[in-house]
Structure formats: structure tokens, C-alpha cells
Amino acid sequence: MIAETVCSAVAVAGLGIAAVTAYRKRFLAAARTAAYALVPLGLVMTGAVAWVADTAFSPTAWAGFGVLGAAWLLFLGTRAAERRGGGSRKERRAAAKAARREAVAPAASAPSLGGNARPAPAAQPQPRAQKPKTGGADDFSDIEAILKKHGI
User: Does 131 have pLDDT greater than 60?
Assistant: First the structure.
């Protein structure tokens, strides 16, 4: 009985705040406030508040909430382990083979521009000027080879 009275009072107070907000020409905020204010009243009218009050003092209901919480924790734990572990051994091995096979990005296909458009001429790679090799820390030829291998 007290819960219904409190929810009704909250709804009336929220509708009063919505009316003041609408008076200040902030209609979107007033409509949102009215929507939030009507939620407790709707819960009282549907009987959800009485159900919650009955559930709060039921040990069986609390045991049910505990089981739901345990299921939720198991779900989150398995998702975290799945993301961290990467699946089964076969899945990891197949993923490693696919990664080795597709180490270099495939060439991009030409965009389709419609039936009457001319195809774009293929881009010719520009020959790079060879830099003289110097000894010491300035030799980045091995890094350039790796980057070129991966298409960068």
C-alpha cells in the first residue's frame, strides 16, 4: 500500500516538473520528463509493484534470482574465455594457415561505373630510384623489404 502511494506521488511530482518545463517552452524535455513520470504510475496500475513487493519477501524468488545471476556470470565467463583463447586447436590452426596464405593483401578490383563508362587505365608502378647502401644504423633495406612484401 505504501509503495503504491509513493509511486503515485512520484508520478504527480514528475508531471508537475514536466508542466513547469513545458511552461518554459522546452517541450521536448517536458515530454521526456512526463514519460519518465508516468512509468511508476503505470507499474502500479499493472500490478507490477505488488508483484515486486511479494517477491521481495519470498526466499524462493531470491533463490531464482541467484540462479539467474549464476547463469549470467557463466555466460560472461565463457565469452571472455572464448575471446581470449581463440577457440579449439583446429580453429587456431586453420586461422594460422589462412593468415599465412593471405599475408599479402589481394589487389583491389576496379570499381563498376555503369555500362557506358570507360574503364580506367591500369596504374603503372613507378620505378624507385636505388639509394646507395650505407653501413651502420641508416641501413633500412631489410625493413623496406618487409614492408614491400606486405604491400605497404
Answer: no
